Amino acid sequence: MLTDLTIHELGARFRRGDATPTQAAREYLARIAALDPTVKAYLTVTGDAALARAAEADARFKSGAPLGPLDGVPLGVKDVFCTRGVRTTCGSKILEGFVPPYDATVVARLLGAGAVILGKLNMDEFAMGSSTENSAYFTTRNPWDLSRVPGGSSGGSAAAVAADLAAATLGTDTGGSIRQPAAFCGNVGLKPTYGRVSRFGLVAFASSLDQVGPFAKDVLDAALMLQAIAGHDPLDSTSAAIPVPDYAAELGLGVQGLKVGIPAEYFIEGLDAEVEAAVRAAIETLKGLGAKTESISLPHTEYGLAAYYLIAPAECSSNLARYDGVKYGLRVPGARDLIDMYSRTRGVGFGAEVKRRVMLGTYALSAGYYDAYYGKAQKVRTLVQRDFQKAFERVDVIVAPTTPSVAFKIGEKEDPLSMYLNDVFTIPVNLAGLPGLSVPAGFTKAGLPIGLQVIGKAFDEAMLLRTARAYEAATTWRERKPELAA
Amino acid sequence: MAEPKITMKEVDHVARLARLALSAAEKERMRRELDGILSYIDKLRALRTEGVPPTSHAVPMTNVMREDVPAPSLPQAEMLANAPDRSGEFFRVPRIIEESIEE
């Protein structure tokens, strides 16, 4: 089956003429039709457009002039990205029926590389959540255990890759929304350095934290996806004008002699015993490959979560002011006046988690509380950043668990705070703007995936990919697939 | 019971600032949940931050300037296509200004 293959395996078949992009697209669309009613990863499937683009790719391969590694490869993108002519909901009722007049830069880059986009993937509303239960449409299921969450907020993107419903996908990571679902669904998820990838055309949640990145079946695929989307974009003034290295070329360098930092604060009470054992075993594997490990301290880790839950809601309350019922999306009729129309539209259009964060952010920014909450959180953000700076004076890369536990049950975490605590190991990386990656590092006895997190210096994604690749090559976790029946 | 961090009056005030119409049940739940979250966030108080500069952005940011070159915008028809209510080339909204002010 072509749907089993990685991007690089699929590309090799296309180049040899053993398979065509149209065959791959048809296989994926058939698998989506059969299995997505169970997994529920897709919000929108764009079958006709996918087949039309696949036919164009067929012609390029036939004429001996394919575009590159993504040419003809079937991919999916989170519904947070604007797609010209294709409805974009961001998992929210307030954007129901919205059809963007332009493509996000990352989408344009994938299309420019010849990729075949299969559709738009489910997510927590406005990317707020850790389980995809906050989608206004439905909850995506974890392909490894359908009673469990796929993680969030890019749960659809992670589940689609795990269930072979796309060769790779794009998600976004504001507080862990790529790494945590990648860990829960057993694939590779990469959050690049803030500024590495353009955010133009991405529905904004917390602008100083959001970053776009790939989910992939293996580390080479993640490198190929990053290569396609990375680099400066004049349409995003926060995107960095820094050269993009050839990631695939640096993948095979190994970890011999690398200094790997192990942060004491990531092995705390509350860390699941099976997760801890798997991560410690992974560290031993890296040592066996020639890496040197060093204990490091990131003393402000426990404050990162509290700072994040002021900063992200503050930015969200500001960004979400644009949903006012005037320009696009929902409008609740029958309002007395303009303010009443805004309030009623937002009251009906936003779900519970979005309202909670808008309220929290508005409160933290309001007169009398600004210094005590938002101002304080920004200072703590500096301390978290300094922790990493200090650590990276001594080590090349940091490894830790991606999440404190494996995928939890749908409906299990009703209290918002207990849901927030799930992001405790991923959030500091966003506060500091650093790159982070989750790579499969084993399974629990119950058969649920465990993720190893690799954290690097700013703009040093190559180091993460190379470390993860060395580890992946020494293990066989990626060979295991979830059993799914239509 | 500890003093609540946030009162119903504050919930009303913040909901008004945020332009969010909430039902009575939503407000009560919001008060309780925000109270719990703010209590957790209070752990930041334990941290001394005198003299620490605030970070608003993870990477150093400067103003980005570009040449002032005219370029076509998105067509008006496309920008209006998503409007929930419109009149010709305009977004239509409920009346903002009263017809007459009686005093």
Short précis:
The complex is a heterodimer of chains A (486) and B (103). Chain A has 486 residues and is of the alpha/beta class.
Q: Which term fits the overall shape of chain B? A: flat
Q: Please give the most extensive interface between any two protein chains, plus how many residues each contributes.
A: A-B, 75 and 51 residues
- Given helix and strand content, the structural type of chain B is mainly alpha
- Helical element count of chain A? 16
Give the % helix of chain A. Answer: 25-40%
Q: What gap, in angstroms, lies between the N and C termini of chain B?
A: 49 Å
Question: Radius of gyration of chain B from the CA trace?
Answer: 23 Å
Written account of the structure:
The complex is a heterodimer of chains A (486) and B (103). With 486 residues, chain A is of the alpha/beta class. Chain A contains 16 helices and eleven strands. Chain A has an eleven-stranded mixed β-sheet with strand order 1-3-2-4-6-5-10-11-9-7-8, sandwiched between helices. In chain A, β7, α9 and β8 form a beta-alpha-beta unit. In chain A, α2 (21-39) packs antiparallel against α3 (47-62) and α5 (155-162) packs parallel to α6. Chain B has helices at 8-17, 24-41, 76-80; strands at residues 86-87, 90-91. Chain B has a two-stranded antiparallel sheet with strand order 1-2. In chain B, a hairpin with a 2-residue loop joins β1 (86-87) and β2 (90-91). The longest helix of chain B is centred in the first third of the chain and has 18 residues, at 24-41. Chain B is flat, with a radius of gyration of 23 Å. Classes of the chains: A alpha/beta (486), B mainly alpha (103). Chains A and B meet through α10, α11, α12, α13 and α14 of A and α1 and α2 of B.
